[in-house]
């Protein structure tokens, strides 16, 4: 953290960045920013945080260089300083989005009336058509409106997903999807809705299912209004959810796109007669691939499943940058809603990350950027060594949590935060899950051991064990926090993941009949195409691939060493 920053300044910078992310659902990493005006100490704290999260500051002299156009203009000073900076930054090629953030700490830093009429682009975001169709205003001094309307959120997501749009356009132009029914079983929010509509527009018939705790009813209704069949309700009971999932399967989809492999496994358990008619499926998550690999090892997997999660353009970005940002921000947003004195979490406090896979790396990175002292608990010795090399303290989980203010599980494995760990946590420590399986925090075991649950705020419960006066606070019943308490991963991140999903669809359409009934790696060409399209969208030209000289087909490679002279 900047040496001159006081806790109040760090807390302000953290809140400002989180409010920007909550309003826009945009990524901080990989974006170019400028800071205009304000107290130099505030600007230094904000600059440090943005760069620690992976953003890059653009020099003012470079504003008209296409490779260095600013994506985010953070205004901290007065409207007199901000107005000319906004007008200069708005002079840009069409289609390159500029978000102007009013981050005035005490007074507004941007005069919204200076740019003509504004219009809502999505809750918390204003469009400025007089400047450009690609310029938007956000204020970190007010919370986004609680507006359930979905159409604006879908439009916002669609404009921010150029990679998925490009891949879907190729599918449409090739006519590959005509006559194909695709079942989408994912967290039902604006980005997934855009994926479903892109598939529909490319020629597929699309049916959608989502679990109750992963359903945005307004988004579900928007898809129904667009003509899609949706099997989802946020109020469905467990039994009703199963019937909705079976009803989706009974439409006989040729391809399933799943998140957690729940519907893929349900098809094997309850609708095995459908499997011979299917081309296959694609699975989005690490936790979803684990049981599918077990089924494949037993010879019980009846369809090919493309391992979307293992694509480099998914795992390196979605798991690390997307989940890291969205889960940590969601946790701290919930903590901000708790009464003072309820919890231990403070800027500069101690945090523990359980697991140091790609998700754990991302969570640790974001916590460190926000000023936390991070300890990693990892049972895999190689990953634990990675954490040590990355600069983190490494310790067994049950020991690490004793003095921790915040504990985040990032394993996707049940009982990671087991009963012994829960008992070891300090009173007021906050626990949350960045993974994605039930009972990652062993809540059932805690209740069986006599723990009592006490509401302490929105989506927050204190667990008090017999003989204790206090205990740790578990957020949102141990659910995957960026899904249960936020809008999921940032749009640009899901753009990459869904482009890979579309690449998996192409693989199944072109080669599904030839693929082994197993968990199938994604074609490396999908990664290359996705990354090159994304580089262009981010304003960076891709380096052409190096062409290696081809070995003549009739000549075997020389396996001898010539280092010590002619082997002959």
How would you briefly describe this protein structure?
The protein has 568 residues and is an alpha/beta fold. Helices cover 39% and strands 15% of the residues.
* First-last Cα distance: 62 Å
- Overall spatial form: globular
Rg over CA atoms, rounded to whole Å, is: 25 Å
Whole-number mean pLDDT = 92
Q: Strand count, sense and closure of the main sheet?
A: 8 strands, mixed
Uncertain ranges: none
- Helix count equals 19
Estimate what percentage of residues fall within beta strands.
15-25%
Q: Enumerate the strands of the largest sheet in spatial order, edge to edge or round the barrel.
A: 16-15-14-17-18-21-20-19
**DSSP, total strands:** 22
Fraction of residues in helix? 25-40%
The computed structural class is alpha/beta
Written account of the structure:
The protein has 568 residues and is an alpha/beta fold. It has 19 helices and 22 strands. The protein has an 8-stranded mixed β-sheet with strand order 16-15-14-17-18-21-20-19, with helices on one face. Helix 4 (151-159) packs across helix 6. It is globular and about 70 Å long. It starts with 6 loop residues before the first helix and ends in a 31-residue tail after the last helix. The mean pLDDT is 92.
Provide the fold topology:
Blueprint: H1 7-24, E1 32-36, H2 40-52, E2 56-57, E3 72-75, H3 79-89, E4 98-102, E5 119-122, E6 125-127, E7 135-139, H4 151-159, H5 162-174, E8 181-185, H6 190-201, E9 205-209, H7 217-225, E10 229-231, H8 238-249, E11 255-258, H9 262-270, E12 280-283, H10 286-297, E13 305-307, H11 312-336, E14 350-354, H12 358-369, E15 373-377, H13 381-389, E16 393-394, H14 397-400, E17 406-409, H15 419-424, E18 430-433, H16 443-448, E19 452-457, E20 460-464, E21 473-475, H17 481-484, H18 491-511, E22 519-520, H19 524-537
Parallel strand pairs: 1-2, 1-3, 3-4, 4-7, 8-9, 8-11, 9-10, 11-12, 12-13, 13-22, 14-15, 14-17, 15-16, 17-18, 18-21
Antiparallel strand pairs: 5-6, 6-7, 19-20, 20-21
Helix pairs in contact: 1-2, 1-11, 2-12, 4-6, 5-6, 5-18, 5-19, 6-18, 11-12, 11-18, 18-19
